């Protein structure tokens, strides 16, 4: 046998024993087969289902025909795809499906018929698909479904029929879908749901009936069999009324959405049975009140949304049983007042939205204001926006910035208002003293505005003036020794300053008054009680200026930061009320649209506080100010602020890993100084080296061709004539022999210079 023919025979034998893989040659025309058993035929302009070659094996498992122009599915289109497990026909123009189109697809698990033109699916079309788990029929024009359509689909887990024209859900229409977990029926026209429509869906977990035409849910049997349901969406319907026990058996329900309906009434037992509910959305309805007891069955609820209703009254006990409530939204309603005790038992409440209401800032909101301050003092970062609409003098202001003394009753019954002392704001005013009818001084604390006193005839010893809410007679103030301290004296009607002897209840003359007793009111009207070496501070603005210093931040992470500050020794002046001193920390974030300062109050002698639940990668400004006797300064404490930037998400440096900024700064400065020293040394060395080289070169040339040396024709002729023959040959014959002046102007190339630079040498 010829040895050269052996390799050829071996190759032919290999072709017979190991034929080429059929998957390499069996891909459908105009399709792609990246996987041997998957055909990608999407967006190919196909108008019919492509057919495999006659000799190709039937091994395709996934066929994607989405985005084509197929209009009809015949009974023989899939006869050669008996092994298919996934078929995608979405985004075509399919208007008709033959009842026997899927007869051979007994192994099919996923069928996608969404976004076509189907108006109906013939009964029995899906019956051969006993292994089907996912069925998409969404965004078609199907008007009616019957129990026969889903017969034998016992393994179906997800069914999408949203975006169709369904109007009625018949009795036991889903009776064969015993394993169904997800059912989408949103964006239809469902007006009526038979009480047994969902009776067999005992495994259903997700039901979406949003964007339909339902007008009510009166029947208690509609959802009674959905014991495994965790999400029920009924938003964007026309529901007006919810009766009792409608959700009685939904004990595993976690989310219930009733948003954007027309609900104006709910029975007291409408929410009974929702023992596990975490989220209730009932915004965008017509509710007028939240009565007591309505929400009591929601033992585990964490989020409530009553936004955009017509709520004008909330019972103080409406949320008393909701121990796990974290988020409550009441924005865009008709609330005018709200009791602070409404949220007293909601200890884990983190987010309270009260914006967009008709808040009347009078004494009825004083309790709410104190509750807000108390919650913030406990370290809860609670953002509460209560913007006054009435009265006109407070319109646009937030309740946090309104002095409690300004929350006056505007025609409301006195029994609705309760007295209470909250953090007052020092409004930068002073005590304005005016002359009475007989020259006596009458004063009143005002917020920077001139006091208007009625001129009534009262006895001299009974003339009173008010300061910090404490009323005393003039003689009592003189006996306490504080008359005139921190006040500015004004002239009486006669143009003279009144004088009276203190022992007899009369003013002293200016010549006999102790000059250390009176101090003028500084700009802004604050009290300066720092006198005689004693730190007696009753005004919070003065307290901030003289006591607080050295505000700094430490231990910055992505969500927390520690604020530290120091204080000087001080003594609080008491004027009949307790002048307890503590601090509050204001923090605000910059660079974002939603800016609003939040406050955290400290207790006792604490000189540090840790802010929590901050946002990562955000710039914050933190400021420290004092609260003296329940009053705070209106002027922002600009001198006691510090800026910081929280770390990015996932970058948290613990306290032990936080670097010392001073050491880092010193190390950086030392490194820069050393680098400058090295650069300076290198530059100086190069400069000296260049000068030394130039000097050596100059001495060498001068030594060879100096004009001070006597010229010797013999030596010059022997040593120079050979090198400068060309130069000398251009001279006239009368200059020969060479003279001394000929060498003085001769140029030489300096070896220390680059390029064509020339240098002349002479005396």
From TrEMBL:
Pfam families named among the record's database cross-references: LRR_8
InterPro entries xrefs: Dev_Immune_Receptor, FN3_dom, FN3_sf, Ig-like_fold, Leu-rich_rpt, Leu-rich_rpt_typical-subtyp, LRR_dom_sf
Keywords: Leucine-rich repeat, Membrane, Repeat, Signal, Transmembrane, Transmembrane helix
Keyword Repeat tagged: yes
Annotated segments matching region Disordered: 469-519
Gene3D superfamilies, per the entry: Immunoglobulins, Ribonuclease Inhibitor
UniProt domain Fibronectin type-III: residue ranges: 547-650
Entry keyword Repeat: yes
GO cellular component: extracellular matrix; extracellular space
TM spans (from-to): 663-685
Segment forming the signal sequence: 1-23
UniProt xrefs under PANTHER family: SLIT RELATED LEUCINE-RICH REPEAT NEURONAL PROTEIN, TLR4 INTERACTOR WITH LEUCINE RICH REPEATS
The protein, known as: TLR4 interactor with leucine-rich repeats
Provenance organism: Oryzias melastigma
